[in-house]
Amino acid sequence: MKMVKDKRKKMHLSKMYSLRRKGFEEDHSQIGGPAPYSAVSAILPLIVVIGATMVKEGIEDWQRQQQIEILKDHEVNNRKVKVHRRGGVFETSQWKKLKVGDIVKVEKDEFFPADLLLLSSSYEDAICYVETMNLDGETNLKLKQSLDVTSLYNEDSKFNNFKATVKCEDPNASLYTFVGTMNFQEQRYALSPQQLLLRDSKLRNTDYIYGAVIFTGHDTKVIQNSTDPPSKRSKIEKRTDHIIYFLFFVLFLMAFTGSIYFGVVTKDDLDGNRMKRWYLRPDDSEIFFDPKKAPIAAIYHFLTAVLLYTYLIPISLYVSVEIVKVLQTVFINKDVHMYDEESDKPAHARTSNLTEELGQIDTILSDKTGTLTCNSMEFIKCSVAGTAYGRGVTEVERSMAKRVNGEDHFDENGTEAYSHLSVKGYKFEDERITNGRWVNEPHSDVIQKFLRLLAICHTAIPDVDEETGKVTYEAESPDESAFVIAARELGFEFYKRTQTSVSFMEFDPKSKKHVERSYELLNILEFNSTRKRMSVIVRDDEGKLLLLCKGADSVMFERISKKGRQFEEKTRDHVHEYADAGLRTLILAYRELNEKEYEEFNEKFTEAKNSVSAERDDMISEVTDQIENDLILLGATAIEDKLQKGVPETIDKLAQAGIKIWVLTGDKMETAINIGFACSLLRQGMKQIVITLESPEIIAAEKSGDKNSIARVSKNSVQKQIAAGKAQINASKSDAYALIIDGKSLAYALSDDTKNEFLDLAVGCASVICCRSSPKQKALVTRLVKEGTGKTVLAIGDGANDVGMLQEADIGIGISGVEGMQAVMSSDIAIAQFRFLERLLLVHGHWSYRRISSMISYFFYKNIVFGTTVFLYEAYASFSGQPAYNDWYLSLYNVFFTSLPVIALGVFDQDVSARLCLKFPLLYQEGVQNTLFRWRRIFSWMVNGLFSGIIIFFLCMKSLNPESYDKNGKTAGMEIMGATMYSCVVWVVNCQMALAVSYFTLIQHIFIWGGIFLWYLFLIVYGALPSSASTTAYKVFVETLAPAPTYWLVTLFVVTASLVPYICFKAVQMRFFPGYHGMVQWIRHDGRANDPEYFQMVRQQSIRTTNVGFTARSIARDNEFDWHLER
After folding, report:
1. Which residues take part in binding ATP (predicted)?
2. Which one, of 1068, 1032, 984, 743, lies nearest residue 41 by Cα?
3. Is 801 part of any known ligand binding site?
4. Which residues are catalytic?
């Protein structure tokens, strides 16, 4: 009885090897070789996969190269400039041939070819106007002035015998500092940034300048600020690599375990003359089944098993992901909601490697000028003599109104009353003072002085069109331009400037006519970040000496005389209201001077200006402080730094999504703070932690001139301020904090021993604004946030000064604005407006992250299902290296039968609609927290695949063995078992896909059910080939499978049994334990979009407690109001 039982078991095992028509020898030779399949069937799919990836990458590189063609280095270096050769003769030469010490002549609207020392210009006092848009993103003009001793060298011929020696600092990346001296005519003169013209700046409103080359090529400050573009890969792609490594480890472990078992069993195959596995012919084997060479047989089996189990690794995963990403970028490029009609520019994804990263952004680092703002200042309101004028509504006020009331409650007719005004920089409308009606106001004399001050106190240059007589202005800042435009529109038109006079037309209340006035310009007391004010001293046409001053309220109110405070209280209230509306405010005041007072001041001021000591700036500041006192208050201006359309709403929605927003700008601190208020990154009541280097200790160290001492004291000061800020946050964590730091402090904050403390402080704040940041500092801050937090960082900017930041970030977004195309060319994705970032992240980012995560998880699932059946079959066949399936079944599984549905999932699936993505921004946190691609979720898909594979194998095995398969009583051989089990695998993985899809399209139906149809079509076509080609698949479907009811019943039963566990799990989870995402999906699937109560309940859960955005500003106002009521 025992012998019969053993024999029966051996017979069943022998059926696994299918004694085919061509005899035992052929079958035995196939399983005895180290390769379990033919070379062609293995190599062809690999060629397809690698070829598709190469084509995709090649096309993208070619497209990028085509776009960068216009910016190639050799084109820039081959630009022309006039260079002094000898004898006062200037010849044209290429930029790349310039040498340190060359004297060049740069003409109007040309770029500076190197870092130059300004020697002279077409103006008598050797000033020139420079546009630094490519350096700091600012379109306003900077005023530069040469030393007086070289100002007379303003003609070519005068450089015949010009000789001077310059000693200066080593090349560095600091754009705003320069230290050096010039020895000229046996005298030594101090040099400052005022004489330095930086490469890539442009000469504006100046006919020509002469300059000496100080730094060239890579030594120039703009190149010092550049960074090498890194290679970017998404975090999901990197984790996918780790999963592949894990699967390789599992593969080798399986092969190793099976090989040890195979070696042990092979060694015991011969028991005397009795063969335990007689069907393997161990007595007639060369190596593979030879008991005498069991160790070598085990090694052979290991190689065979490694090759056989490679189907555990999804080779088509990467190419499928590449295809999906390319198609996702097409959808981004074609999204009409991200198309800007005004500039006729759609969104453009310049690389397809990072689409899923868009759904995982934790921090946004944004430039200001041209990114958040249009860099267009508009005069909108003012307060004069304690009376508020101007009926305009700011973007911030409108956004807050929409938040509070659900709609814009401002009267459209009222707000559009001034829409007919097509004057750039002027958005003021108030019938009380426009069109000369100011003469009827109670304090018309104060209004007249106020408007005169606007027309005189500036450094703008008028440009009169000779044909039309229209006056336009070139100013150092957009603010100044807005002031002179406002004065012009209100009847005080500035039209002429000389070195010693300012001329303007004004409305005369007495004669009721416009009269011409010319004031003698005596001194200009320039604005800087320390003084925070600007003044001019003029003599009017009546001979009176006047000091006209405008500046920040923090320094102006303390300089008002006791007699000049008549309107102070009301003006302060108006300034507070303007600031809360996001407006930039300045206080305007004046005083009359007597002759003696002015002469004393002018003597000291001239002496301070001509000083060459290190204390020159302090001497000038001390002198100006003495004269800028006892002022009489006139009023305040309110200018809207015109935000790009939708910026406050976008920032608010991104804040609701849990995304942190930092602003990195080259602007002054005051400008950056005002924009922070305008776009609701800052608000009244938010505590500001300001880190600067303006303490008396720092000033004293700078006076000493010792660089080491200055650096040591400065670094200690920054460290102390950071520590104090962290202590302040820890002491009151319930309050909202904003961190504001300037460029000098940032240089020390980014040092190796301080940067981690700085990052801790910054992360603890609701808003972070870095002012006066150089391009290199922007890149370093981006790197610090990216590496320090380990989160995904996005940088967005529009200028050449943002290139380093864009390249350093995980994703760089370029704004295709007015500042050239450098940022766009260095970006990963280009958009036309900042507001499109909302849809790009919350919709496309969310979808892309979910699609890529799901498709990769599904890829591993379907390969583990397939690999499990291969492994179990080989184990059941005594680890003999026998594949369960035909060669081409193995090869085409990933390439054809299961790849198209997963691509459709990655391209078309939508868990929720775009409307709901925007309505419930908290959905975005799925990507930030990486909930869909955690190891736990990945392993859960793998376990699902493992169980499905086990169910398929054992149910097929028990169903088909040893019972007869058809009516003729035949039992199922290897070809029938393999084809049936393969059919079940194809059905299960495609039906699992159908269950996982949230949003069906026709294409998905075609791909899912078409994949199953394609399998059967392949069986028919491949089975019709000669047996030498089709081998085990020869007519297996037509003659064996299709006519047998058992095949169809087994397929139905196995597929159902494999999917039931997943269906039950998802049903219980969605019904009883729905997460936030599940609740939003119920709105769509359960038809509850019209249930306002449920809708609002879910909506409220999406509103995060945030300190940024107009939502936070509105809540803070409500809380303050409630507090006053309680009091």
Report:
1. 367-369, 480, 527, 550, 584, 665-667, 772, 778, 801-802
2. 1032
3. yes
4. 367
